[in-house]
Amino acid sequence: MTDHLIDSIEELIAKIRDDSSQWPEDHPRWFRGEPATKTRLIPKLYRREPYPNENQLLQNFRAMAPSFAAATPPREATDQWLCLAQHVGLPTRLLDWTESALLAVYFALRETEPVVWMLDPIELNQVSMSEKGASLELPELPLPWHQARSPNVINIGSINIRGAWERDAVGVDAPVAFVPTHVHPRMAAQRSRFTVHGRMKFSLEELVLPEIWRRYPLNPSSKASVLKDLRMLGVQEASAFPDLDGLARELAQLYGASSG
């Protein structure tokens, strides 16, 4: 992977188009913005040993969250609870992705050393399925809530999510990509997608070959000009966080006021 720093939106789009030109056209491209760190592409739950007690975190979150929110998922919808926990900041085995490269850039630029990643989620799931001696029949992502009736059908998304609640009693080794139910208003605005880690607690970068992912470091010195272009393209705080807090931060940024 090149360490060349990307200076503009135009340059990034050109790199994305070129790098993914050999990927199947019907495969989506997912993006993630994060800082350049040693814990890249590792879920928050696994960034420091000893790992937190995942089951206790999730069970307590599910038990206590209804008193803090007007609406929460049904108790048995463990996929929705896991996604909601991740989205509001609880350490989980999920990694956040988005279908929007521009949003990924915006999120990355909130960091000191910004990096954007691109992933082919279908190929990731092909890798995970191959562990079971099978392959995906169609270029589709698994429904995380679906429980197959036939013992010969494996929903790798469902069993990796179950592993989060069942102490890895089930699941595949590699991460699995899935499309979540939007249980929080921001998830729709951010075009949220997730990968869910399985039994192997290493980074996605280490677990799968680079043919299915790309890494794009952004030039921190170009932050102001890139943010200006993003604002022109309609990507700013209130579009990424469509609530009163996001609006307040956007107006503070626009008019040079402190939001602290």
Key phrases:
three-stranded antiparallel β-sheet, single chain, 6 strands, globular, 12% strand, 260 residues, 36% helix, alpha+beta
Please describe what this structure looks like.
- The chain is an alpha+beta fold.
- The protein has one domain (9-232).
- 36% of the residues lie in helices and 12% in strands.
- It has eleven helices and six strands.
- A three-stranded antiparallel β-sheet has the order 1-3-6.
- The protein starts with 8 loop residues before the first helix and ends in a 6-residue tail after the last helix.
- 33% of the residues are buried.
- The model has no long low-confidence stretch (mean pLDDT 91).
User: What summary fits the major beta sheet?
Assistant: 3 strands, antiparallel
Structural class: alpha+beta
**Overall pLDDT:** 91
What is the domain total for the residues? 1
Radius of gyration: 19 Å
Number of helices: 11
The rounded distance between the terminal residues' Cα atoms is: 38 Å
- H/E topology pattern: HEHHEHEHHEHEHEHHH
The amount of helix comes to 25-40%
Shape: globular
How is the largest sheet built, in terms of strand order?
Answer: 1-3-6
